[in-house]
Amino acid sequence: QFAGPWHLVAAVSVCSLFLKMKDEMKSATITISVLPEGHLAVRLLWPLMDKCQKFELLFQQSGQGGHYLGMSEEKRELHVLETDYSSYAILHEAQQSGQGPRTTLQLLTRAQDVSPQLLQKFRELIPTVGLTQDMLAVLSKSGECQEAMGWH
Question: Residues in domain Lipocalin/cytosolic fatty-acid binding (predicted)?
């Protein structure tokens, strides 16, 4: 149910690089595939610095519903905090890095437009994960990486 294309339309993060770039950031296209063992493959296409950056992350199920663990060197945890599967999902990602823990809250929508009500719901969750409103980026629409949606 969770699989398929999504748009990353808003994000909140303590990452210093994110905070430096957040005003210029454009919305990313995310394709989520559920692999046979129940693992998740998350592919991002992000227009950064005038080109489409591709990222692929693999997560394995932790045994708890909606909770996944990263399968790369970096210790990432992904929680699906809230979703209706058909129009939006709110993800909480925690990552242990050399610089200490990094927390990110992400709002994904199926359509590129986000309703004010959904944005408000997202804003209300920000303090619950220890982040603040000034770290919020509402990402502007981008057509730049759309053509690459089908890459495998």
Answer: 3-141
Name the residue with higher pLDDT: 11 or 143. Answer: 11
Q: Which CATH number fits domain 4-138: 3.60.15.10, 2.60.120.10, 3.10.129.10, 2.40.128.20?
A: 2.40.128.20
Single pTM value for the model? 0.87
pLDDT tens digits, 119-130: 999 999 999 999
